[in-house]
Design a protein that fits this description.
Order of helices and strands of chain A: HHHHHHHHH
Distance between the termini of chain A: 62 Å
Radius of gyration of chain B: 27 Å
CATH architecture of the largest domain in chain B: Up-down Bundle
Number of domains of chain B: 2
Strand content of chain A: under 5%
Largest sheet of chain B: 5 strands, mixed, barrel
Strand content of chain B: 5-15%
Helix content of chain B: 55-70%
Number of domains of chain A: 2
Structural class of chain A: mainly alpha
Helix content of chain A: over 70%
Number of strands of chain A: 0
Shape of chain B: globular
Number of helices of chain A: 9
Order of helices and strands of chain B: HHEEEEEHHHHHHH
Structural class of chain B: alpha+beta
Number of helices of chain B: 9
Radius of gyration of chain A: 20 Å
CATH topology of the largest domain in chain A: Multidrug efflux transporter AcrB transmembrane fold
Oligomer: heterodimer
CATH architecture of the largest domain in chain A: Up-down Bundle
Number of strands of chain B: 5
């Protein structure tokens, strides 16, 4: 039997048992997201397409699935959608600058031996693919934070309609701060898990600190982890502001 | 008045800015500390440009540029050197250099006595971008998250050091199982992260216990499945950076990878259940259990998707490379994604299992508190 298949069945059983209908929907959303990523990948193979624009379109689809399919279409999810997309655009600019500056695109010298049989001249701009990786790795977490802030803010104004815009914004920030630590932690360990072998490689081959700090793979990894965390942090004020602005405007 | 009120905050930010400025100054001027020769590009000239087509019909452009660079350290410090650089439009394993870039080079010894020095480019100096990135991260987290943000930065730094230390032990004593070392490190990771971000209280203790039980339970299931299916469908051959037995590294990476997400769920469950209880001490255990499950259902989906995206995204360049080299789709996907999928699924199992585990651990702590009171 296939290991992945059995693990997938176990996960389905658990999610359905613990999460009920919503659990099943969340489970299927993983596969829908996988499908979106595959479609994005196919379009990226065409050198005429711009990977950054493709990523942006894929993000619209992914965020919609995570917010509107797993939850439902309502004011909370709509505001979370707007906030996530606005933050993503800011993040795009930052990450593009950073990837371009530090020249971390493509493959490192540690990986290049095993790629010997393949042609690297494939006409696809790997700087833009690099931007895409960072964005895709953080879009899930950003959506999570946006909805986690939007929902209680909506409740807050529902129970307390006379609340001021500034006060509402501050509560949003407070809720966000509580999530910030745990979500950056989640990303951190997930990345560390997948790069455990790299760290061991550095140690086994006695890389000096200077070697590590300039290595393409290592710097790329750090830029990805940190940009993803910056994305989570940025989505907090943006969501708080969008919600505070929209919810109190309707009040007037 | 303003200064009085915000004295501490102003002091803190001044200190942070000072540290930031000092470290940036250092990485911009640290060439003397490197053994490898470093040169800074002062002029570039593109001398060749041609269209290339590979055996699969992919079109790309290849360029050659002539660089003049000034050597920043070593015996030849201050001298200029001529370098040649080939790069392509796609840049999968090469880069275009511009004025101001700093490069590691090796000097061609035969050219030392000649008029102009020549040499080879060996690598790019990236340390300043690394430091810059770290500071942008620290400032964003501290400005948005204030105290909590600062503590998460500290906890990430401590955990990174701890991991490095744990791996040092493994490198020195390879007879100890890496999974065991990671398991012991996991206890420290959990305690440090949760105590730093949530303080020393019953909530945190409940979360630590739930994290450990949740991780062990999910890994037992995953290891059992891998064992019973004989790892069928897991393509270890595509694991990168292997200097050690790969199955062991993969198992350890499952452990560390799911830990953060499990911790996140455990603290969410325990914090919210304690919160409900504090607000209404008369609440029945059954009502507490129901509210806890409702919260768990809300976080389950988003957490699994966070892990999923982190793991899948990194494979993107590899997938593109394989498919552009006319590798079959099924082969490409199974080769490049099987381990990432296994990680995501194992993490997902950990997340879902930790919901009831976190719930009952918190209830157990509350019951104990009631008995004592």
């Amino acid at each position: 039997m296939n290991t992945l298949l059995i693990l997938a069945i176990i996960l389905f059983g658990l999610m359905a048992f613990v999460g009920g209908k919503k659990g099943v929907r969340s489970y299927f959303s993983l596969f829908i997201n996988f499908g979106i990523l595959l479609i994005m990948l196919f379009f990226m193979l065409d050198p005429k397409m711009n990977p950054i624009i493709l990523t942006l379109i894929a993000c619209v689809a992914i965020v919609s699935v995570n917010l509107f399919y797993v939850n439902e279409v309502n004011l909370k999810t709509k505001l979370a959608f707007v906030s996530t997309m606005a933050t993503l655009v800011i993040l795009f600019v930052f990450i593009y600058l950073m990837t371009n500056l530090s020249m971390i695109q493509g493959f490192g010298e540690e990986e290049i031996d095993e790629l010997a049989p393949y042609s690297l001249m494939i006409g696809i701009d790997f700087v833009k693919v690099g931007v895409s990786i960072v964005i895709i790795s953080t879009v899930g977490a950003m959506t999570d934070v946006a909805i986690a802030i939007s929902s209680p803010m909506r409740e807050l104004i529902y129970h307390n309609p006379s609340i001021e815009r500034k006060e509402l914004f501050t509560s949003g920030m407070r809720i966000g701060r509580d999530i910030l630590g745990t979500d950056t932690n989640t990303l951190f360990f997930a990345f560390i898990g997948s790069y455990l072998a790299l760290v061991l490689w550095f140690k086994d081959l006695s890389y000096s600190i200077g070697d590590i700090a300039n290595s393409r793979v290592f710097v790329a990894e750090v830029v990805t982890i940190l940009s993803a965390s910056i994305g989570i942090a940025l989505v907090i004020p943006v969501t708080s502001w969008v919600n505070a602005f929209y919810l109190t405007r309707k009040n007037e | 008045m303003f200064f009085q009120k915000h004295k501490k905050v102003i002091l803190f930010y001044s200190l942070l800015s000072l540290l930031c400025a000092a470290s940036l100054l250092f990485v911009y001027q640290n060439a003397a500390f490197y053994d490898r020769t470093i040169a800074k590009v002062v002029a570039t000239d593109r001398i060749e440009s041609e269209k290339v087509t590979d055996m699969h019909g992919n079109e790309d452009r290849q360029f050659t540029q002539k660089l003049v660079a000034e050597i920043l350290n070593g015996e030849e410090k201050g001298q200029q050197i001529e370098l040649l650089n080939d790069y392509s439009y796609s840049g999968a394993y090469d880069d275009e250099f511009r004025v101001g870039h700093e490069l590691f080079i090796s000097i061609d010894r035969a050219s030392v006595d000649k008029e102009a020095l020549t040499g080879e480019i060996t690598d790019i100096k990236r340390d300043k971008y690394l430091v810059m990135m770290i500071w942008v991260f620290v400032f964003t987290l501290v400005i948005v998250g204030k105290k909590q943000g600062f503590f998460s930065v500290i906890s990430l730094a401590v955990n990174a050091l701890l991991l490095s230390f744990a791996l040092d032990i493994y490198v020195r004593f390879p007879s100890i199982s890496l999974v065991l070392i990671c398991a012991i490190a996991a206890i420290f990771f959990t305690a440090i992260s949760l105590c730093l971000t949530n303080g020393l209280n019953e909530k945190t203790y409940a979360a630590i216990i739930a994290t450990l039980i949740g991780t062990i339970a999910s890994l037992t299931i995953t290891y059992f499945v891998i064992w019973i299916t004989d790892g069928n469908g897991l393509r270890y051959e595509e694991m990168q950076f292997l200097s050690r037995p790969y199955v062991m590294i993969f198992m350890a990476s499952l452990f560390v990878g799911s830990l953060g997400a499990v911790m996140d769920i455990a603290i969410t469950m325990s914090a919210s259940i304690f919160e409900i209880y504090e607000k209404n001490r008369e609440i029945s255990m059954e009502a507490l259990r129901k509210s806890g499950m409702a919260i768990g259902k809300d976080v389950m989906g988003t957490m699994t998707s966070i892990l999923f995206f982190v793991y899948i995204s990194g494979s993107l360049p590899m997938l593109i490379l394989y498919l552009k080299n006319a590798a079959p789709l099924g082969f490409t996907l199974s080769l490049n994604l099987s381990l990432e999928m296994a990680r995501a699924l194992a993490g997902g199992i950990g997340i879902v299992l930790t919901i009831p585990i976190g719930l009952y651990t918190a209830i157990f702590f509350i019951r104990r508190k009631q008995v004592r009171a």
